[in-house]
From TrEMBL:
It comes from Parasponia andersonii (Sponia andersonii). It is found in: Cytoplasm; Membrane. Keywords: Cell cycle, Cell division, Cytoplasm, Lipid-binding, Membrane, Transport. Residues 443-548 form the GOLD domain. One of its GO terms (molecular function) is lipid binding. Belongs to the patellin family. SUPFAM superfamilies: CRAL/TRIO domain, CRAL/TRIO N-terminal domain. Gene3D superfamilies: CRAL-TRIO lipid binding domain (3.40.525.10), GOLD domain (2.60.120.680). One of its GO terms (cellular component) is membrane. GO terms for biological process: cell division. Residues 165-181 have a biased composition (Polar residues). Its main location: cytoplasm. This is Cellular retinaldehyde binding/alpha-tocopherol transport.
């Protein structure tokens, strides 16, 4: 990938007599958490396998916005040290043209003695990048608006006839010779055909049925449109198929007992397997799925050893999903999808039959009953066997589904996450500065922005924090993977004053704590110097943030 210039000057100066603003980071975020690497593919709906086709590489998402207005004072000597020349467009394109085979060779080097490429792994770029469609009716095409209107009409008629309470299951009718096959080509015709059948299913009903899904009462406000658009998009705006899917989902929810499940106590053994943490740069809530937790044999047996345990696991996942969905914003301009991260580090391989069986069960439920709830599927710490599996099934995935996938091997996982999520929102275990879901950080919160600085190979970087008043300053800093030297000192403004060593310079090893926390009570004006020495041949990413509290007289 092309070298990146730092998003802000590394020198910061708090303004006099005021609390300085930490470096600014602009952050503006289908079902979450499949139960295995393969299950993540369940987000797609059932569709005919498309023919192989030429696809574009994924456009990189918007970079984290520059950390603006960090300080009115910038020391140019420091700034120059971190400004990096951008590579040419040709170099950038060449870097992302890696094939899956190249990625396999790099990531499976230990298990494949023939692998000899020492370059950075080639992440499989794909695919045309998925961009979420608008849920505002005014932004829909004419045919899409007609399809939405038709589906609303069918649901209203079904409610009037109590169709959703009947035991009859709706199936999408097979295409007849000469029938419409293009997406939403004739929604009015489809609406009429289904409308003729709907009253028959609920014949003899005495009262009008009221219905809600994911906590949203149907046909009461414009949030219904957002929900119905999910079903329509899952079925290419074919009204009849979308209605069949919707009706069967309602039936399944009643049979599965979703409303009662929400309040059921299923224990906390899987709290580290799947959890929500922070948002991406677009505001989507982020769901982490940590499959390596199942390397714990006791947890694996307790979760998958027999059908009863697998059923409980499935109910736990559906419960977690339902609770997460109900926190989404189903207004037309709101966030109604989830950003999903699948951590495959130490994940059980494809030989685990119990996990495969649980995955198969979950696949059917997720693809049939939770359409279009995933904004992006990011796979990190991807082993070679998963990429090989993906290569096999890729021709049978729809372009829409593949456009949501992003893969990263262990070496590139933090960088990949930072493309989509601000460092202050990324948990410490994944390279960021956000404490995990069960800890707390009294000095910083997830809303305190982080400054990023890139350090070239073989160079030293110094960050200055200029102090204008007596204060207490606290900061935290990390370099992912360390292998760099770090030191901190305070230099008073007074001539001939002694420099105070806050953190003696030493080499930080990968085994050291991932984040360094320092603090200092400043009794005179001066500056804090944070120095990071990168002796390696790799570019390093420095993350830091600080807070200052003025001392009371």
């Amino acid at each position: 990938m092309a070298d990146e210039t730092p998003h802000s000057a590394p020198t910061v100066a708090p303004p006099p007599s005021s609390q300085p603003l930490p470096p600014q980071t602009a952050g503006t975020q289908d079902p979450p958490a499949p139960e295995s690497a393969a299950e993540s593919l369940a987000e797609t709906q059932k569709e005919e396998p498309p023919a192989l086709e030429e696809v574009e590489k994924e456009d990189p998402p918007p970079k984290l916005a520059e950390k603006a207005e960090q300080s009115p004072v910038v020391v140019e000597e420091v700034a120059v040290a971190v400004v990096e020349k951008e590579e040419t467009k040709e170099e950038e394109e060449a870097e992302v043209k890696g094939k899956l085979e190249q990625f396999f060779a790099h990531e499976s080097e230990k298990s494949n003695p023939l692998a000899s490429d020492d370059r950075e792994p080639k992440i499989p770029q794909s695919l045309i990048s998925f961009k979420e469609e608008s849920n505002k009716v005014a932004d829909l095409s004419d045919s899409e608006r007609k399809a939405l209107q038709g589906l609303r009409q069918l649901i209203q008629e079904a409610l009037d006839s109590n169709v959703f309470s009947s035991g009859q299951e709706t199936q999408a009718a097979p295409s007849k010779p000469g029938s419409d096959t293009k997406t939403g080509e004739n929604p009015e015709k489809e609406t009429k055909e289904v409308a003729e059948e709907a009253p028959k299913a609920g014949a003899g009903a005495a009262s009008v049925e009221e219905l809600s899904i994911w906590g949203i009462p149907l046909l009461k406000d414009d949030r219904t449109d957002v929900i119905l658009l999910k079903f329509l998009r899952a079925r290419d705006f074919k009204v009849k198929d979308a209605f069949a899917m919707f009706r069967n989902t309602i039936r399944w929810r009643k049979d599965f007992g979703i409303e009662a499940l929400l309040d059921e106590d299923l224990g906390d053994e899987l709290d580290k397997v799947v959890f929500m943490h922070g948002t991406d740069i677009d505001g989507h809530p982020v769901c982490y799925n940590v499959f390596g937790e199942f390397q714990n044999k006791e947890l694996y047996q307790k979760t998958f050893s027999d059908q009863e345990k697998r059923t409980k696991f499935l109910r736990y996942r559906i419960q977690f999903l339902e609770r997460s969905i109900r926190k989404l914003d189903f207004s037309p301009g709101g966030i109604s999808t989830i950003f999903q991260i699948n951590d495959l580090k130490n994940a059980p391989g494809p030989g685990k039959s119990e996990l495969r069986l649980a995955t198969k069960q979950a696949l059917h439920l997720l693809q049939d009953n939770y359409p279009e709830f995933v904004a992006k599927q990011v796979f990190i710490n991807v082993p070679w066997w998963h990429l090989a599996f993906y290569t096999v099934i890729s021709p049978f995935l729809t372009q829409r589904t593949k456009s949501k996938f992003v893969f990263a091997g262990p070496a590139k996982s933090p960088d990949t996450l930072f493309k989509y999520i601000s460092p202050e929102q990324v948990p410490i275990q994944y390279g960021g500065l956000s404490v995990d879901f069960c800890d707390c950080n009294p000095e910083f919160s997830i809303s305190d922005p982080v400054t990023e600085v890139f350090i070239k190979p073989g160079t030293k970087q110094t960050v200055e924090i200029i102090i204008y008043e007596k204060c207490f300053i606290v900061w935290e800093l990390r370099v992912v993977g360390w292998e760099v030297g770090y030191g901190a000192e305070f230099v008073p403004n007074t001539q001939d004053a002694y420099t105070i060593i806050i953190h003696k310079s030493r080499k930080m090893a990968p085994s050291d704590e991932p984040v360094v926390h320092n603090s200092f009570r400043v009794g005179e004006l001066g500056k804090i110097l944070l120095t990071v020495d990168n002796p390696t041949s790799k570019k390093k990413r420095l993350l830091y943030r600080f807070n200052i509290k003025p001392l009371s007289d």
